[in-house]
Amino acid sequence: MVGPTANNSTRSSTLYLSQSSLQLLKASVSTSTKQLYLRSYTLLHKFCAKQNVPFSLPFTEVLICNFIGDLFQQGYSPSTITSHVSAISYLHKLFNLPDPTHSFIVRKTIKGTHNLAKSGDIRLPITKSILIKLLSALHHTVQEADTRVLLSTIFLLAFHAFMRLGELVARSSVYNTKVIQRQDLLFLDDNSVQLILRHSKNMKDGQPIVLTLAANYFNPQLCPVRALKTFTSLYQHKSGPLFTFKSGHPVSHSFVAAQLKHAIEFIGLDSSKYLGHSFRIGAATEATKNGLPENVIQQLGRWQSNAIRRYIRINAFRL
After folding, report:
1. What pLDDT is stored for residue 158 in this prediction?
2. Fewer CB under 10 Å: which end of the chain, C or N?
3. Residue among 316, 265, 262 nearest 288 (CA)
4. HEC profile for 222-272?
């Protein structure tokens, strides 16, 4: 519930409330909403740091518009962007400051995200051929060998298990317990590995999903089992998120997204069209190329509706 400090040029943002009233104020917001607001402020804080501008109230209309543009470029949906802007609005209202999110230019910028999103999903699939190039590109874009192993494993797992990047690495520390954990990985034998997905967008009744991946002896470079064995031999932690740095800190979504962007640009592709979800789109597209029926692909990708049809991008590349 604590916001950034106010600019000296603005009215004070200090709340002189009693302990009892503070408890009531905190109780007015649900736990899930608090987590969402915290994530929004974390994203904005990172954006301010990237732009080398102070993270202080009140935020300017221009800063918020640029923040919206940055989120949209990263692939955030209009509804998610609107939620983040609402969190910023709440912070200004909480400290009785003029709310810049209701200005004409901010509302029009948000409307622009909706209008462009209507034109269709611009994300393209990371197909098997592109995946091979990305794995090779890491030798040029990432200096540390251990980090290359880590990223290669994430890329291969996202592709072969039809996984959302947010199921593998957390967007913020609030979600560190929601991503796949080290104890959820089990090698059954030399030929397969089992993963337990305990938190997923389309999970039924909160029941964990058990995924089993088989080894690929025909193309070891693309084998997820081999990659996971190499990864766990280097990163030997026994608890916490599966993907953790040697320092013990969990690997963040932003780190993986940035490294993917570098690799995509290195192989000469448009990084604005190949994002974390492109692995999942690519998996569905490759499965279709290989002749798997739609109902099987739907099961592999854990889709509960015909949303799978949005992920099959045969026209996105030459067969």
Report:
1. 92
2. C
3. 316
4. HCHHHHHHHHHHHCCCCCCECCECCCCCECEHHHHHHHHHHHHHHCCCCCC
Give me the residue label for tokens 């992920």: 311
For 9, counting Cβ atoms within 10 Å of its Cβ (0-12 exposed, 13-18 middle, 19+ buried), the class is exposed
d(CA 106, CA 100): 8
Q: Is 14 left (phi over 0), alpha (psi -120 to 50) or beta?
A: beta
Q: What is the pLDDT of residues 228-246, one digit of tens each?
A: 999 999 999 999 999 999 8
Cis peptide before 58 (omega within 30 of 0): yes
CB atoms within 10 A of CB 175: 19
Give 316: exposed, middle or buried? Use CB within 10 Å, 0-12, 13-18, 19+: middle
311/137 Cα distance (integer angstroms): 25
Dihedral (C-alpha) 269, 151, 161, 132: value to the nearest 10 degrees?
50
**Burial grade of 86 (CB within 10 A; 0-12, 13-18, 19 or more):** middle
Bridge pairing between strands 209-214 and 185-189: unpaired
Longest CA span, the chain: 68
Tokens encoding 86 = 């609402």
Strands ordered across the beta sheet of 185-189:
185-189, 192-197, 209-214
254-279 pLDDT, tens digit each: 999 999 999 999 999 988 889 888 89
Q: Using alpha carbons, list the distances in angstroms from residue 171 to 35, 117, 165.
A: 12, 22, 9
Count helices and strands (H / E) in the chain. Answer: 12, 3
Which long-range contacts does 36-41 make (Cβ < 8 Å, 24+ apart)?
Answer: 36/83, 36/87, 37/87, 37/90, 37/91, 38/172, 38/174, 39/84, 39/171, 39/172, 39/174, 39/175, 40/83, 40/84, 40/87, 40/88, 41/3, 41/4, 41/87, 41/88, 41/91
